[in-house]
Amino acid sequence: MTFSRRRFLQVAGLGAAAVIGAPAPLRAQGKGKVRLAYLQLGWAATEIIHKEDLLGKRGWQAEYSIVPGSPVPLLNQLTSKNVDAIDMSFALAAKAFEDGAPLKVTGVATAVLGAIVARAGAGLSRVEDLKGRKVAAIVGTSTFFDIRALTLKGYGVDLQKDAQIVTATAPPDMVTLLGKGDVDAIIAWQPITDQVVLRGQGVYLAKQIDLWRKATGRPSGFPVHVCYLVHNDFLGKHPAIAGDINDAQRDAVDVWYNRPERAMEIVAEVTKLFSFECYGDHR
Question: Is the domain of 100 the same as that of 227?
């Protein structure tokens, strides 16, 4: 059976509501071991859930694992039942759902976080100026595919054809290329984009949220970029995990805004991308 993305959203919402809305005694039963894996590059503040053990504080024996690189291996860890829950790109989650993967969306984490950052002094002021210029990107990531699709629809610019894409393997590679002047722009995501801009190495050419609004014609609203997925088998046995992950995510956001030094310390430790001293005001 093939599911549309709209159907995925409907089923995801109903499933999350049904689990989270379960009676308190049912949700409290069966707490035990849970294995939560997340992407190293810092999508959704899951690293704060890990380092503050926010699931442990809710009665779980939590095992956390950090997965480097692209999100695909992380998704494979869930479908193969090597872990019980993950954070994941909503686009990849939808594709997995369409393919019949045994997973459920139990909550949403963040809106889109990507951006096109131009090198300071590169003479770029519009998206259209990227034609013929060198742009560093990690081809294969959901952010690259999404920004490419949005710039094509919103501006008629196909980044993969109209620009010269320089393939990078990790965000620090893009920062290095930009700093050396080897590329004119990068396609990246938080926190690396703010890092580059705050250091004066680059300027925002277009943020992903603005590209989305331009392409869709919607002046407001936020598309979901990252969600939490739980394997069907684990969720069936431990329905309380859905609400507890969402509560842990809420507490992680509270740490981000109310204990910024601790949040930056955790993010720097996990992502290896920056130190909070040079990051500036993250809010």
Answer: yes
Distance CA 214, CA 194 (A): 22
Same domain, 85 and 58: yes
Whether residue 69 is found in the same domain as residue 163: no
Q: What is the CATH number of the domain that holds 9?
A: 3.40.190.10
* Rounded Cα–Cα distance for residues 97 and 80 (Å): 14
Q: How many domains does the chain have?
A: 2
75 vs 229: CA distance, rounded Å = 9
CA 245 – CA 251 distance, rounded (Å): 10
Q: Count Cβ atoms below 10 Å from residue 82 Cβ, excluding itself.
A: 12
Can you tell me the distance from the alpha carbon of 211 to that of 154, in angstroms, rounded to the nearest whole number?
Answer: 7
233: containing domain: 5-112+222-279
pLDDT tens for each residue of the chain, 283 residues long = 444 445 544 445 544 544 445 444 444 445 899 999 998 876 678 999 999 999 999 999 999 999 987 788 999 999 999 999 999 988 889 889 999 999 999 998 877 789 999 999 999 999 999 999 999 999 978 789 889 999 999 999 999 999 999 999 888 899 999 999 999 999 998 878 988 998 999 999 999 999 999 999 998 888 888 899 999 999 999 999 999 999 999 999 999 889 988 988 998 899 876 554 334 444 4
Locate 260 and state its tokens. Answer: 């910024």
Domain boundary among 216, 233, 251: 216
| CA atoms of 221 and 61, how far apart (whole Å) | 37
Nearest CA to 50 out of 215, 208, 269 is that of 269
pTM, 2 dp: 0.69
